[in-house]
Amino acid sequence: MKNAVIVDAVRTPLAKGKPGGAYSDIHPVDLHAVALKALVERTGIDPAVIDDVISGAVGQVGEQSGNTARWGLLAAGYPESVPGVTVDRQCGSSQQALHFAAQGVMAGAYDVAVASGIESMSRIPIGSQFLGKDFAGPTVQGRYAPGLIPQGVSAELIAQKWGFSREQLDEFAAESHQRAARAWKDGRFDNETAFVNDLRTDETIRPDTSAEGLGALRLAFKDDHWSERFPEIDWKVTAANSSPVNDGSAAVLVTSEDAAASLGLRPRARVRAFAVAGDDPIYMLTGIIPATRKVLAKAGLSITDIDAFEVNEAFASVVLAWQAETGADLAKVNINGGAIAIGHPLGASGARLATTLVNVLEQTGGRYGLQVMCEAGGIANATIIERS
């Protein structure tokens, strides 16, 4: 079996995913093309050798419908001979794209593949694809009677189960902003970024954020309906200790070692192991715990072997519960900040995490990096890479 290596990875700065955000006037296909084009320009690769472009997108409706991967690669100037496919594993869509690209290389089906992601939440608002319909159906709703719940309420259940206080959630969120602001100031994001227009940082980072200031914000998910259903919850999740909505794109070039050598490219990392896992769809966001255990077992590693972690900060309670169960050192988790500050453009986030993780390993001299992403429905992707 061949090794799959990461030759390069790049992302755009992330913008606010609402009208007036820095990218709200850019069509999602053109925003996707920024990362895809930058990947070719940075590596000097002839895009004609790319066997497939596998892209993640969650809101596959309107301007992100009709296999947006194909239109993104054409907008980036790739030859018409290059195919593309769009996948949906909810928030883990582009991390799944990376898994598919690596699997294709390892199986010998691909020599060169691109894993990418796009989400324009300013133009395709979250939930647009549901059209107000019951996406799970009556059988599933009945299995989890009295029905499924929003992710924010799941985050509240997690905080309650693991006993996290409002202060702990806000402290974690404030630290994410401070780390991300320092990373930009110190130039640690420069090597991973393809700039768009005049945006020169992630638009949702607030450098002056403090836990005390966040403590004054109102609760985001408490209402009479959910309070009646879950009277045990001591509500504490706010918009500030949750990830924002964002626009952005990212792309990762994956090849075999032989293909990299023949093209004169230097691998930056090897995809060591990957796994997916499922968990309770009511708690929903806890899938990252079994996924982490599963991928470590596949790689023959322990949590202490990992030098850097990128754990998607959908909510502060999710990362804190994962840390409590895995024993990971929080000093090694999201060292350049996480999604609470940087942003979470759903379909692009997996490729963004991979891009950041490659750079963090190079910046710190670490060997192994692990990224893990919680996803709607109680599933999760986990990936371990090894720096070259």
From TrEMBL:
Q: Where is the active site?
A: C91, H344, C374
* Domain Thiolase N-terminal residues, every copy: 5-258
Identify the keywords attached in UniProt to this record, alphabetized: Acyltransferase, Transferase
Pfam families named among the record's database cross-references: Thiolase_C (PF02803), Thiolase_N (PF00108)
According to the lineage, what is the superkingdom? Bacteria
Q: Name one GO molecular function term.
A: acyltransferase activity, transferring groups other than amino-acyl groups
The Thiolase C-terminal domain sits at 266-387
Instruction: Name the protein family.
Output: Belongs to the thiolase-like superfamily. Thiolase family.
What is the protein's name according to its record?
Acetyl-CoA acyltransferase
The UniProt gene name for this protein comes to fadA
